[in-house]
Amino acid sequence: MATCKECKFVTPSPTGDPSTGVCLVERMQLAETQQTKTAIKGKMVQKATAACPKFEAGESWKDIKNLL
Amino acid sequence: MPTTERTARLKNRCRFKHVAGGEYVDAGVKAGVERARLITESHKKNVGEANCIIRARGLENILNNITIHIQDDELIVGANTEHPDYFPMYPELSYYSTVDMVESRYCDHKDEMREIAEYWRPYTIQTKGEKYFTPEEIGVMYSATTVQPPMFVTAFSSIVPNYESVIEDGLLKRIEVVEKNIADANANMRKSPWNAPENLHYLDKLDQWKGMVIAMKAVVGWAQRHARLAKIMAENFLSEPKRKAELLEIADICRHVPAYPARGLRDAMQTKWFTYLLCHSIERYSSGYGQKEDKLLWPFFKKSVIEKSAQPMTREEAVELFECERLKVSEHGSTKGRQLREFFAGSNDLFILTLGGINPDGSDASNDCTNAILEATESIITTEPSISFRWNEKGNVETKKKVFNCIKKGFGFPSIKNDEMNTQQLVKYFNVPEEVARDWALVLCMSPGITGRRGTQKTRSEGGSDVYPAKVMEIALTNGFDEFFTNVQLGPETGNAAEFTSFDQVWNALKLQLRYAIELSLRSKDVGRVMELKHLCCPFISSIDDGCVEKGLDANELAEVANPWHNIIGGSVVVIDSMAAIKKLVFDEKKYTMGELMDALRNNWEGKEQMRIDFWNAPKFGNDDDYADSIATKYYDLVADEWKRNTTYSGTYPLPLAQSVAGYIVNGPKTAATANGRHAGEALDDGGSSPYMGCDKNGPTAVLKSVSKINASKHKGILLNQRLSTVLMNSDSGFDLWHAYMKTWHSLGIDHVQFNVISQDDMKAAQIEPEKYTDTLVRIAGYSAKFIDLARYSQDTIIARTEQDIKAG
Amino acid sequence: MSKCEQCAFFFPIPEKDMDFEPGKGDCVLQQEDTKGKFWLSRPVLESSAACQHHRSKR
Fold it and tell me: Is domain B1-23+271-441+721-809 annotated with CATH 3.20.70.20?
């Protein structure tokens, strides 16, 4: 069964703790009033957690310039 | 354009090691294994010895055995790893940081490094430090939400090496001094009659001094290895006469320094580079490039360039040497932990040198060496090292024009610090004699510290680490619980804001959450400091500090000149604007209730767009509006007062330092919707007092007036980002307009300002055709980066900054 | 079997140098990649078995 560890939207934890990660899949386009375009709703996750419906297999570093 | 064919070639092939989103941009960058292998091999042989001896033997084994290299065209030699594309690893620091690196694509020696990481695990400062905290406290700190994870897990540090003592004395003379201390101690211990109180303190000192001798001898040997390599290359591998002559001169330099005092500018530059490598990257990792470079090199610039009495060279050759230095720094590989790599988006590390200001005797410290460094900076166009310019009324206009030239080209630096204010702060808060204080340089991007032969900052446990105010404000409204990012209780239970009935209750909750975050963070720093002095002695760093040599103390232990400071990173203005909106709309006008606000924030303003716009349009900091500015004043005073309650390792209270690096980007996705009308996951404010993106609508003078209302003297620094028009800055009256703006800035008693000078059109074009904009630099906050190296989310936050028209005022 | 001391890339360490040890020398090799040439030096013992880069002294 796929877990967060194998998901391309999950970046490493801030400390490098191998058991946790930061999920960056949730994002929204902002209103015209805002100067920036995108908001990213981060979530700290346990990498062993079962994958959610938005799971896509991959490694976050390969697409990091579009992730953060 | 680079000024010589050599520096054009060096730049063209520069092995940049920039990061984006925590990942190295260049595919060729790898983790070197030799340092880790050699320090491990030595540790196994020396377990049981005093820590300073273990550490000295480790350094000796690295310097005697690591593969060294010299690249074609180089004038300054030496590196921290076995290959020019690599960065080193430090398994003795943080287990998590090592494992993170070992399991990444950068490490090609996974099995060996996994074994090394496991060997070190019980000895790491991470393991040693963690046991003084509860699992809950570790959870809060390691989530990097309200506070920065402690140094024992990030492995992040900073230092200002005592370059002066190495350049002026040479290590052989310093070895003699330390050996005399050892001989004197041994003689005293053998005096009759035996007196324990007078002699037992020598035991620890003897170990420290012996460690210093081992380390300094190893360093001289390492320089001699470079001398031999240069000579062997000249005599066996190369035929071109000019390069052969250069290599023979490099061989002569490396045989002379750092063993002996520097003779001229080439010696001084090489000594400085060797010392930098050792203190920042080989003995342990420390960020920064803290030095007052024009003061340090001026005597040698005079000898070589002006008087031509030692290592004579033309001024053009000096400029070329400074260009080479910038390129050498640009390809230096730093090994920061994950969070710090994310925090320095687009950069390699925080390399910041300091220029300008005044001399100890009060005269203008800007000289022709300052000008040559600035000219090299303007011509070579690299993001590193960044420069801080100490703006003093006495500073000459010629040098200020050269500062302007770099800024108008869009480098984002020099950043400008108020010289008089920062000097007086060292005198007033840290009891530094005025003539010593006048030689200050930035330790990292914003914090002044002393330079010279003793008492400089040696570890980030003295000054550094972060509190994240926007997240603190978020949990101040949710009873200390983080509903958005971690689902963890991050702070004390200070009540649910839906039930708050007064603005004072909101303010008090913020104060108590801030207090908890500050105290946890300070405690982790001081615990880390004790772990460092017990388990991470730095005998070489100690050997070049006159105080450590005199007292026989490790550099981590001796706090001869206290310099405690603590960052408050990105989000201060989100807090101020949120507080202003709450006060106005909930408690003054009673248009909304706290319950309605909490409901809207929890749901990210969904279905409440008009309410969000009301909060977005509430008074904002940066418009010379007393409603918001009075809250700003109160907030920055609160921050200073809260830090002032504490006493740290060095015996006094820290000063806060409001800035952001790229924390305003990285922490955006960790922070829920805020009452300033910001959505969840939107970036925070860039800087320490920069108005929130798009919220400063009354021109640049209004921004300065708002910022000037903050009592900056209570803070170690408050970062202000401003974006200026490229057209205006490049016009005939560009300098005069900017100079007038700077005079206003200075007269208002503001601590800092730095500028982006780049058009929206250029940035948008660079997003579409990045290959055409390889030299386009932007200021993030505290450092600059190549625009094309940044991730899209980060690029958009630069485009979003308000472009100010300084002509309009 | 060839030894490092017979290699053209082996250079004994002078006795006066801090890292001198009898039989120890510098192995100096030239490398080149897409970014240019560089020269590496690492310590070896003259008695060590020759490596793949070995080139006999003339």
Answer: yes
